[in-house]
Design goal:
The chain is an alpha+beta fold and about 350 residues long. Helices cover about 30% and strands about 25% of the residues. β8 and β9 form a beta hairpin.
Length: about 350
Amino acid sequence: MALLNDLINLNLTDFTTKIVAEYIWIGGSGMDLRSKARTLPEPVSDPKKLPKWNYDGSSTGQAPGEDSEVIIHPQAIFKDPFRGGNNILVICDAYTPAGEPIPTNKRHAAAKIFSHPKVEKEIPWYGLEQEYTLLQKDINWPLGWPQGGFPGPQGPYYCGIGADKAFGRDIVDAHYKACLYAGINISGINGEVMPGQWEFQVGPSVGISAGDELWAARYILERITEIAGVVVSFDPKPIPGDWNGAGAHTNYSTKSMREEGGYKIIKKAIEKLGLRHKEHIAAYGEGNERRLTGRHETADINTFKWGVANRGASIRVGRDTEKEGRGYFEDRRPASNMDPYVVTSMIAETTILL
């Protein structure tokens, strides 16, 4: 009798040209990912050649029951690390039957900004640092923490090794390799300051692809934690008190910033960001006020400041950028639960179009 794993791991390419396409979209909370699969007659590499599909929006909090159909448009394709072969993951955005983007579709507005001639000319690069916390499923408490208790204080856990310092590395490494397999431009991982907290980085990615890749990486992470029986949290401050929160630091540069004399452009861009600080904070993730306190490597949520190598600033400029007179900067304000379509396009809009 075949084992379940044998059936899950069947290589379909030996038997059929048909493939499985897993369509992925963002649910009603703006953070919950949903997906369902369909069979296609042959391999596809261009999202424009994929059929549109639909789902019951009344079951995701995105449509009323009497008019529940939501249409999903394929936008980006990644290899499926779970099914392997020619099977694919498909990042979609969601529309009404009349073709209007639904409120949780933030990709549509971002794509408009990234297709603006001034933005296209600047070829904006992004490096997104996604922090997250692994939780024990039944008690909703960080992985590796004693039930109902606390580990030793922060200090030994950041980039730490050992069974008493690093909790969940098998999940983290599985995610890293799965993202590389999928074609996501994942550039690294590390253990974070709070035990049970980790980070992965996506980028450098250009324009709208940064958002597509981060959402795909989040999807893969949630699927892996599902297999492992662990919960992943993107809450910006999962544990109150003297513990670091979780952010999504966003590294950014334009063509002008990367060229000779780019430091002046960087400083001008930072000045523009300061003028729209409140607007950016409002769009940078729910619950961020619990994280941006001025402690634990953050600037206070009501204060905008920048500095070179200053991890307590809103915007950090690296020593190399200052020394070379060109490069990139890091916006440290976004929360771990931010929408990358919103954050990346807003930074481009503020620094290039305004």
